[in-house]
Design a protein that fits this description.
Helices cover 74% and strands 0% of the residues. It is mainly alpha-helical and 144 residues long. α3 (32-45) crosses α8 and α6 packs across α8 (105-140). The radius of gyration is 15 Å and the shape is globular. It starts with 6 loop residues before the first helix and ends with a helix.
Length: 144
């Protein structure tokens, strides 16, 4: 295995730009629980162990129960997730797998209905950022 570049060292302005969006996301109204469910679910889809390992403890600190974390891979079949979580997870799935079928009108409308415009925009930005971080970590083969 070859050693990959360290983008943070080579292009610190790029990392700072990403961290600026993270700073914005830290202050939004979207709950910490929903943010962490988004991060873990997208990271599962993208097979980013680095991000999963980072965000599971964060989710636990935010109050997400372990049983819910274990069920996240099969959230559609699990009774543990409420309507808001289901809408956000469906949005996360569609956005993360966007090349397959885009974001369906049904998924978008359900997320809009439970979140409203402001929190929908926040959730979408959270999905965008974790997908960016997953690609950052996977392309550079980041390890803990």
């Amino acid at each position: 295995m070859t050693t990959r570049i360290d983008i943070a060292k080579i292009q610190p302005k790029a990392l700072n730009a990403m961290l600026s969006i993270e700073s914005y996301l830290a202050g939004v109204a979207l709950s910490a629980e929903l943010k962490e469910l988004i991060k873990i679910r997208a990271s599962m889809i993208n097979k980013c162990a680095y991000c999963i390992q980072m965000h599971v403890p964060e989710a636990e600190k935010a109050g997400v129960e372990a049983q819910k974390l274990f069920a996240l891979a099969a959230w559609k079949e699990s009774p543990l997730f409420n309507a808001t979580e289901r809408a956000v997870l469906a949005l996360t799935d569609d956005m993360t797998l966007i090349a397959l079928d885009g974001v369906s009108d049904t998924v978008y409308q359900e997320a809009l209905e439970v979140l409203g415009e402001e929190q929908l925009a926040q959730a979408m930005m959270q999905v965008i950022m974790i997908n960016a971080w997953n690609r950052f970590a996977l392309a550079t083969q980041m390890t803990h």
